[in-house]
Write a structure and sequence with these properties.
single chain, mainly alpha, Endonuclease III, domain 1
């Protein structure tokens, strides 16, 4: 018998897999945190399905989301990314990714890991988290931050009542 999922997860294999094995699952890996944050930024104004279909291209284009490498990207690399049809070619989002990579490096230097920084967030205070993210990162708004925190398992994911994950998580 086919599993019942949230409606949004039924439109593609990528969405089903993301829903079933990633969305809302806690992580601790700094690179994976960064990847999820950047993908949420690139998703702004687009569908999540589009981003998931391009995820391998994003990983290739952005050195597997190695924030140490990305923090040192120059104008030549930016132009390469702007000409890469496998990703979303938006200069503001690309420049925000480079800036945010530098901030993650700084955060790791201050907190030993990005995971430590994330674990210290006041998760029950949405306004404070918004201030913290806006003061540290570019191209992050309330929806991007909310989706990021849900995707990495720090905020409760709102599964539909018919969804098999709703029954597991509640």
């Amino acid at each position: 018998m086919e599993k019942k999922r949230c409606k949004w997860a039924c439109y593609s294999k990528e969405l089903m897999d993301y829903h079933d094995f990633e969305y809302g699952f806690k992580i601790t890996d700094d690179r994976l945190y960064f990847e999820r944050l950047i993908l949420e930024i690139f998703q702004a104004g687009l569908s999540w399905s589009t981003i998931l279909k391009k995820r391998d291209s994003f990983r290739n284009a952005f050195d597997d989301f190695d924030f140490y490498k990305i923090a040192n990207y120059d104008e030549v690399k930016i132009n390469m990314l702007l000409n890469n049809s496998g990703i979303i070619r938006n200069r503001r989002k690309i420049e925000a990714t480079i800036y945010n990579a530098g901030r993650v490096v700084d955060i790791i230097n201050e907190n030993e890991s990005f995971d430590n920084f994330i674990k210290r967030l006041p998760l029950n205070d949405k306004n404070e988290i918004l201030k913290i993210f806006k003061s540290n990162f570019k191209f992050v708004g309330p929806l991007i931050i909310e989706e990021f925190l849900m995707s990495v398992g720090l905020w409760e994911v709102r599964h539909e009542k018919e969804c098999f994950m709703y029954k597991i998580k509640n």
